[in-house]
């Protein structure tokens, strides 16, 4: 009897292999092809992440809007933008909380457009935040014990001098910072709207010549004549009166706490700013700027020159914490004849000796072309 051959023929084997290859190609394409399972899975993952990011952004905006509605219902004096409280009568114009959040007023007066920068800080400096406080930045002006009258640290005038600086914690400032997590500082030194040329501005009339500056109208705007020739007490009066008719903010002459905390904020972007001699317009530095007529001017090396506000290089959107003019503060010195404190050096100072962290003292009656002031804002409680 003849046995039948039941093996696989070559043709059947080839056909089988071809079918398997086709199926494998289809499977691979479905898995890793342009519209394959893996590609679609990766795309779905990216879409999910993007949707989650947008959802987080929408949630933040929703919460801010909800807070704003609640604050408006409760009659509070601010709204929230990018996590920063913006007082009523002001608008956010540029920058972020970390890079210098700038607001500008729109009060409907001839001095519209004053600009201030948010300085984020807390009372205790926990969780990596900046602590609202006084600091001794220079080795020659180091901290040395406590002053019992003001309950604050003593900061020496110099290592070889018996004079020191001190200041009690301003309660209005601290309470506002506790609630809002920061304060605003003038983006620029205080300037003037216009100057009455009929008023004498020589150093022989220090106590009266401030009246030539617009009858006391202060501005915090770019490209303005710096308000110099002003005593400490007059600067304090002008600062406190700047927003006297606006109950959303409290304006003050810069305290040592606000000054030093602002420097700490600046140093998050420019390490060593307090002792850096190159950040301002000082004597013996090359400096070009645009004057009030729009002309480019270059400082003659060795002479120094007073420039309009906002001409130097800012850090965190803040200009001239060092250089241009000394700035009055509310800090006091135990020198009875010269109890008033100014900060930061001037255009005629040697930068290496008069950095933004430096403290100087002088009399209450002192006023000349090398001293001005800076204003801080606190959101009303």
What is the topological layout?
Elements: H1 10-32, H2 37-74, E1 78-81, E2 84-87, E3 90-94, E4 102-105, E5 115-120, E6 143-147, E7 152-156, E8 164-166, H3 171-180, E9 182-186, E10 191-192, E11 218-219, H4 232-241, E12 249-253, H5 256-266, E13 288-290, E14 296-298, E15 326-333, E16 340-343, E17 359-362, E18 371-373, E19 375-379
Parallel strand pairs: 15-18
Antiparallel strand pairs: 1-2, 3-4, 4-5, 5-9, 6-7, 7-8, 8-15, 9-19, 10-11, 12-19, 13-14, 15-16, 16-17
> What does the main sheet amount to?
7 strands, mixed
CATH architecture assignment name of the largest domain: Alpha-Beta Complex
Number of domains in the coordinates? Answer: 2
Mean pLDDT across every amino acid position: 83
Explain what the structure shows.
By secondary structure, this protein is an alpha+beta fold. The chain has 2 domains: 10-70; 86-379, paralog of FGE (formylglycine-generating enzyme) (Alpha-Beta Complex), CATH 3.90.1580. It has 5 helices and 19 strands. It has helices at residues 10-32, 37-74, 171-180, 232-241, 256-266, and strands at 78-81, 84-87, 90-94, 102-105, 115-120, 143-147, 152-156, 164-166, 182-186, 191-192, 218-219, 249-253, 288-290, 296-298, 326-333, 340-343, 359-362, 371-373, 375-379. The strands form 5 sheets. Strands 6, 7, 8, 15, 16, 17 and 18 form a 7-stranded mixed sheet that branches. A 6-stranded antiparallel sheet has the order 3-4-5-9-19-12. A hairpin with a 2-residue loop joins strand 1 (78-81) and strand 2. The chain starts with 9 loop residues before the first helix and ends with a strand.
């Amino acid at each position: 009897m003849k046995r039948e051959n039941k093996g696989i023929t070559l043709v059947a084997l080839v056909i089988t292999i071809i079918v398997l290859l086709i199926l494998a190609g289809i499977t691979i394409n479905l898995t890793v092809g342009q519209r394959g399972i893996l590609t679609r899975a990766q795309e779905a993952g990216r879409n999910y992440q993007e949707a989650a990011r947008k959802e987080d952004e929408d949630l933040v905006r929703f919460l801010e809007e909800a807070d704003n509605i609640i604050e408006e219902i409760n009659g509070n004096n601010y709204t929230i933008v990018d996590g920063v409280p913006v007082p009523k009568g002001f608008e956010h114009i540029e920058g972020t909380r970390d890079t210098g959040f700038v607001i500008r007023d729109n009060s409907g007066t001839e001095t519209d457009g004053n600009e201030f920068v948010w300085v984020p800080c807390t009372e205790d400096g926990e969780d990596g935040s900046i602590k609202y406080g006084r600091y001794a930045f220079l080795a020659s002006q180091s901290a040395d014990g406590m002053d019992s009258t003001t309950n604050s640290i003593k900061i020496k005038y110099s290592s070889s001098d018996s004079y020191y600086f001190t200041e009690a914690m301003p309660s209005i400032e601290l309470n506002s910072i506790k609630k809002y997590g920061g304060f605003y500082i003038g983006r620029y030194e205080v300037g003037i709207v216009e100057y009455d040329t009929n008023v004498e501005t020589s150093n022989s009339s220090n106590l009266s010549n401030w009246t030539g500056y617009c009858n006391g109208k202060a501005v915090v705007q770019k490209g303005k004549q710096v308000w110099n020739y002003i005593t400490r007490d007059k600067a304090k009066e002008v600062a406190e009166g700047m927003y006297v008719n606006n109950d959303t903010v409290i304006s003050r002459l810069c305290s040592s706490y606000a000054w030093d905390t602002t420097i700490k904020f600046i140093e998050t972007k420019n390490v060593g700013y307090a002792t850096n001699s190159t950040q301002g317009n000082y004597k013996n530095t090359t400096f070009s700027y645009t004057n009030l007529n729009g002309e480019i001017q270059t400082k003659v090396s060795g002479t120094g020159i007073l420039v309009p506000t906002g001409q130097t290089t800012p850090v965190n959107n803040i200009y001239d914490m060092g250089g241009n003019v000394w700035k009055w503060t509310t800090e006091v010195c135990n020198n009875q004849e010269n109890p008033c404190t100014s900060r930061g050096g001037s255009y005629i100072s040697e930068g290496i000796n008069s950095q933004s962290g430096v403290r100087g003292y002088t009399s209450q009656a002192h006023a000349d072309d090398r001293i001005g002031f800076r204003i801080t804002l606190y959101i009303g409680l």
